[in-house]
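#struct-queue
[09:14] JT: dropping the first one here, sequence first, then the structure tokens:
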Amino acid sequence: MNIKKLSILGLVSVSLLMGGCSMKGDEAAKGDMNYLPVQIQQVVKENIEKEYFTIGTVKAEDSVIVNPKVPGTVTKIHVEVGDKVKKGQLLFEIDGGDTVNKLNLGVASSKEQLNQAKVSLDDAKKNYDDMSTLYEAGSISESEYIQVKSGYEKAQSGYNTALSSYNSNVKTKSNTVSDLRVVSTIDGIVGDIDLVEGQMASSGNSVKIFSDDEYIIEVSVTEESIEKFSVGQDAKVVIPSKNDKEYQGVITSVSPIAASGTHTFPIEIAIQEGNDLREGMYGEVTMITDSIDNQVIIPLNSVIRKGEEQFVYKYEEEKAVKIPVEKGIIEGEKVQVFGDISEEDMIIVKGQNYISEDSLLKVVD
């Protein structure tokens, strides 16, 4: 009797032990299944903008080249490069001795001619007055009267010509003497001086003045994109030498003609609050060419390209579903896409390059 009980208990124990081993084996087999870790992100709809990037050079919005109008020796330069000047401020002086001497002779000569013309006019007028009295009295013929009148009119014309010549010579001399003292025509900063005291100067020499409070940046855009830009359009300007400082800009000019030899179109952009800039600085310009509202937007790196095929993986119940897509506007790390994908779909954004549609997936943070 005791032997039978012991045998039954032994059989039950063996059975339970084997059953336990079988359950543990099933759990281990499930744990060994090939689940691949991925990260997912929800598809959203938002606005997206397409940007155009180019580079350019900063220039003063207003600049002038001041040349001597009278050739002569530079007697004094009153400014240095970097000086701030006001409109009308004296920049340099020219000794126009020879030119002024010639003008003095011209004034003197025209004055003498004017005096002679005045004497002739006075004589002609007296004769005309006398002959008019005689003509009215019937003492001279009409032909004699007309002859005297013609002489008077000729003398009047000669005097007017001499007076005009004299006034012109006086004005020319006055302007020339004034031009010997060369002044700035704008408020600004002296950018360059191509003059040396004691040396001859002509119209080929100059002082360059540029405004120090308003700057523009000149850029060029391709012929394919020129229609995207217009006056009044906003632009972002970044100056690397100013620690990548960002300035707001507005397009003020779009050339209708391509630059010779480059087939690119010049654009000028006014830089707002750029009085800390300097002419010649390098700048990076970004302008928006397209802006579209309510578009399907996903991370750019979630799009996989294999040959001619572009697609993303949508996550559904621990599986990856391949969705062909076409890329649209790219904005930084985001991209507009077209395909069978909608808002609130979950797409795989990390690990997508190591899976296939047969893979079992495990979502991780």
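[09:21] JT: and here's the second one, same format:
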Amino acid sequence: MNVTGMSDEELCPHEMFVDIEWSGRAVAVSLELLKPVKFDRKTVEA
């Protein structure tokens, strides 16, 4: 799965959500639930 963007901040002001594409649909998921598979130093710092 790939993160396609940031979700609307109004979705949940206490947590960061990102948009992913899953089974051909756009879905908002908590960033805390995702683990990076391919990343570089800048990604880890963010």
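[09:30] RK: nice, looked through the second one.
[09:31] RK: The CA atoms of residues 8 and 17 lie 8 Å apart.
[09:31] JT: good to know. The chain has one domain: 2-45.
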